[in-house]
């Protein structure tokens, strides 16, 4: 029986786990109840399990039965576990019971899919020519949990550096249910967070000459930043800068002391990333000087560009096509503007990040509410597929590593 066939037997069990996670979402790096559920789900499997220090991660290592001592390769499979500060509005019977928290990005499915992969691979343990590291990660949503797990040693959890890493993400929209998509090279954007605080001197609205108004300086920055983007970047290597929050003052006849704004920046290459950062610094400081105000610029680089290794992306796509049929696995025509801290993993080891369509059957993927929406819904039906895909990637990649080692001998 193939892994794909075995996976369908897990359907109910994985769906139950996913729904339990969905009912009780947790935010950030500290997910004690989620961690408990993962540990319970892995109980009885032949895994070496450790938990995180700076976060509630779970790292599990499966030792292959055919691993050769000293020469075994390891492959990493990753699932993120955290929810979002969103108040669920789906009306589902397993909807969040925690006010203000929701698995609106489908990470509950990632956890269940990875548990499924662990079950499938544990059954095949005797045939595995190497080890598999399962990375259950908190804090993907802005907290950089992947980076903390890397610092705590997840890439070397099997005793040697993993040769490849794979992760997948479900989507409530765009992709039809069951469709797998990935691409070589850039697959997701880099994200930066920018906060600008302009300080002038407050005063009476009737007498701006006797004050130092920060508002016109901020207004000039808002426009100039958009112009900077269009004049500094290759049109085919785009970036976007959105100022989503802007605040100054409390009354129409009072000149405020300060004005602030917050922006997010998304870019798709290191070159564009560098250009935007340099441009923001130039524009903000230049305009502040021109208007005679003080400025504080806090430019936080959050997540880097997620870059799939070309060979690994091709291998992952071919694997998906062989499991599910060619029509259900496509090369994505372009990257997406979301960002991911799996990018940190791919900075250290080659690998691939894949998208899986999880739009419920009664919704149109073209118009269904997107990930992060309070109405976003993800169909359990994709769990056996997710588990089979992750498990199959690990098996085939370990076989490939064994063949390469054989050639080298
Ligand atoms: Zn996500």
What does this 3D model show about the protein?
Helix content is 35%, strand content 23%. The strands form four sheets. The protein has an eight-stranded mixed sheet, with helices on both faces. A four-stranded antiparallel sheet has the order 10-12-8-13, covered by helices on one side. It has a two-stranded antiparallel sheet with strand order 7-14. It has helices at residues 3-8, 11-23, 32-42, 107-123, 145-151, 214-232, 270-291, 310-324, 342-348, 383-408, and strands at 48-51, 58-62, 74-80, 131-137, 164-171, 180-182, 185-188, 190-199, 203-204, 239-248, 254-255, 258-267, 294-303, 306-308, 329-331, 351-357. The mean pLDDT is 96. It folds into two domains: 3-189 and 305-408, 3-Layer(aba) Sandwich (Aminopeptidase), CATH 3.40.630.10; 196-300, Alpha-Beta Plaits (2-Layer Sandwich), CATH 3.30.70. It is α/β, with parallel strands linked by helices and 409 residues long. The protein is elongated, with a radius of gyration of 24 Å. The structure holds zinc ion. Zinc ion binds at residues 105, 107, 140, 169.
- Could you tell me the strand content as a percent range? 15-25%
What's the average pLDDT? 96
In whole angstroms, the N-to-C terminal distance is 32 Å
CATH H-level superfamily of the largest domain: Zn peptidases
The low-confidence parts are: none
Strand order of the largest sheet: 1-2-4-3-5-16-6-15
Strand count, sense and barrel status of the largest sheet are:
8 strands, mixed
- The ordered string of helix (H) and strand (E) elements is HHHEEEHEHEEEEEHEEEHEEHEHEH
Outline: elongated
The overall number of domains is 2
Class from secondary-structure proportions: alpha/beta
- Helix content class: 25-40%
Q: Count every helix, treating DSSP H or I runs of 4 or more residues as helices.
A: 10
CATH class of the largest domain: Alpha Beta
Q: Write out the distinct hetero groups bound to the structure.
A: zinc ion
* Rg over alpha carbons: 24 Å
For the secondary structure, the number of strands is: 16
Per the CATH scheme, the topology name of the largest domain is Aminopeptidase
Question: What CATH architecture of the largest domain do you see?
Answer: 3-Layer(aba) Sandwich
């Amino acid at each position: 029986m193939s892994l794909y066939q075995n996976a369908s037997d897990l359907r109910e069990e994985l769906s139950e786990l996913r729904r339990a996670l969905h009912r009780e979402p947790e935010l950030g790096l500290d997910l004690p109840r989620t961690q408990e559920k993962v540990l319970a789900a892995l109980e009885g499997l032949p895994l070496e399990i450790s938990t995180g220090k700076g976060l509630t991660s779970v790292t599990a290592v499966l030792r292959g039965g055919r691993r050769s001592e000293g020469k075994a390769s390891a492959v990493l499979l990753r699932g993120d576990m955290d929810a979002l500060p969103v108040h669920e509005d789906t009306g589902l019977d397993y909807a969040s019971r925690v006010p203000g928290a929701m698995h609106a990005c489908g990470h509950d499915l990632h956890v269940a899919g990875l548990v499924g992969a662990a079950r499938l691979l544990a059954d095949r343990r005797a045939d595995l020519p190497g080890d598999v590291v399962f990375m259950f990660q908190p804090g993907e949503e802005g907290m950089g949990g992947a980076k903390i797990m890397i610092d705590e040693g997840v890439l070397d959890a099997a005793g040697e550096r993993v040769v490849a890493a794979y992760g997948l993400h479900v989507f409530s929209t765009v992709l039809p249910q069951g469709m797998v998509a990935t691409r070589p090279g850039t697959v997701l954007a880099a994200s930066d967070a920018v906060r600008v605080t302009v300080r002038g001197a407050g005063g009476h609205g009737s007498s701006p000459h006797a004050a130092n108004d920060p508002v016109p300086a901020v207004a000039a920055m808002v426009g100039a930043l958009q112009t900077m983007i269009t004049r500094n970047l290759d049109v085919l290597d785009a970036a976007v800068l959105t100022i989503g929050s802007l605040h100054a003052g409390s009354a129409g006849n009072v000149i405020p002391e300060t004005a602030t704004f917050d922006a997010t920046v998304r870019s798709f290459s290191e070159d564009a990333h560098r250009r935007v950062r340099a441009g923001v610094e130039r524009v903000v400081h230049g305009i502040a000087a021109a208007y005679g105000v003080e400025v504080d610029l806090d430019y936080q680089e959050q997540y880097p560009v997620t870059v799939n290794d070309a060979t690994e992306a091709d291998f992952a796509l071919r694997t998906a096509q062989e499991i599910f049929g060619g029509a259900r696995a496509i090369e994505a025509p372009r990257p997406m503007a979301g960002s991911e801290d799996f990018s940190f993993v791919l900075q250290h080891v080659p690998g691939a990040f894949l998208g899986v369509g999880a739009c419920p059957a009664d919704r149109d993927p073209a118009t269904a509410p997107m990930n992060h929406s309070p109405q976003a819904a993800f169909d359990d039906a994709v769990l056996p597929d997710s588990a089979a895909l992750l498990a199959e990637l690990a098996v085939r990649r370990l076989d490939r590593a064994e063949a390469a080692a054989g050639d080298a001998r």
